[in-house]
TrEMBL record:
Domain MnmC-like methyltransferase span(s) in chain numbering: 109-221
Domain of life: Bacteria
Organism expressing this protein natively: Deinococcus aerophilus
Protein name: MnmC-like methyltransferase domain-containing protein
Length: 229
């Protein structure tokens, strides 16, 4: 469904919302089901829903749909969650609010605090056993945590529109950010993305995609693959 002239918001077939980015010329999440994509590709793709205390690193916080999907899952299970995200072009808070209205995770105190504080730098919030840090910075210039993430959501805009976050050197940096046994997930199944992740030493698996996509990728850092950065 195309965005209407006055609003970038798009209602997707699963009832969740996404929005169109004028800067990148594409939508933040899948037009075929924004929340379904977040849950299937990123939460389940990294097996975060099975982890007792996940530590998630996200490349591209965007509208926070992946974060809310992860938050809702952790809250339901009572699991502790640490979430660190990078975002160099924060969307306006009213857009985040409107996209999230009535959706999973939107009633959590941490999401409400996020809306109050967005986008003050650095955004560091804590509520119960959930901690969120959003760095409003270009991830290409950031010092990433080393050997830390149990789940890594690679969710920049597409390789065609935003090629810098899909290169082999950046994939190698992402691999170093994963804890041993950590899992990176992305919606792209492009051959060059798969090869970049493999060249970084990750074990790459093609999985069925979210609605509208045939395949997506999961890339695992084997426990014995931990190398000095
Ligand atoms: C596809 S959207 C992410 C959607 C988001 N994960 C969600 O759940 O709503 C991609 C996001 O990555 C951000 N981004 C792209 N390249 C980046 C970079 N080099 N550093 C930081 N953020 C970046 C964009 O500004 C955009 O918000």
């Amino acid at each position: 469904m195309a965005p209407c002239d006055s609003s970038p918001i798009i209602v997707t077939p699963d009832g969740s919302r996404t929005a169109h980015s004028a800067r990148f010329g594409e939508t933040y999440g899948s037009r075929h089901g924004a929340f379904s994509q977040a849950r299937h590709v990123f939460v389940e793709g990294t097996r975060t829903q099975q982890h007792p205390a996940p530590r998630v690193l996200e490349i591209g916080f965007g509208l926070g749909v992946n974060f809310r999907a992860t938050l809702a899952d952790a809250a339901t299970r009572g699991a502790a969650l640490e979430y660190v995200a990078y975002e160099f072009d924060p969307a306006p808070a009213p857009l985040l609010r409107e996209v999230a209205a009535g959706e999973a995770g939107s009633d959590h105190p941490l999401w409400q605090a996020l809306l109050q504080n967005w986008p003050h730098t650095p955004l560091q919030l804590e509520s119960g056993n959930v901690r969120l840090t959003v760095h409003f910075a270009d991830v290409l210039e950031a010092t990433l945590p080393q050997g830390w993430a149990t789940g890594l959501y690679l969710d920049g805009f597409s390789p065609t529109r935003n090629p810098e976050v899909w290169t082999p050197p950046f994939a190698a940096r992402l691999a170093q950010a994963l804890a041993p046994g950590g899992v990176l997930a992305t919606y792209s199944a492009a051959g060059h993305v798969r090869r970049a992740l493999e060249a970084a030493g990750l074990q790459v698996e093609r999985r069925p995609g979210a609605p509208g996509k045939r395949e997506c990728l999961r890339a695992v850092r084997a426990p014995d693959q931990l190398r000095e950065p």
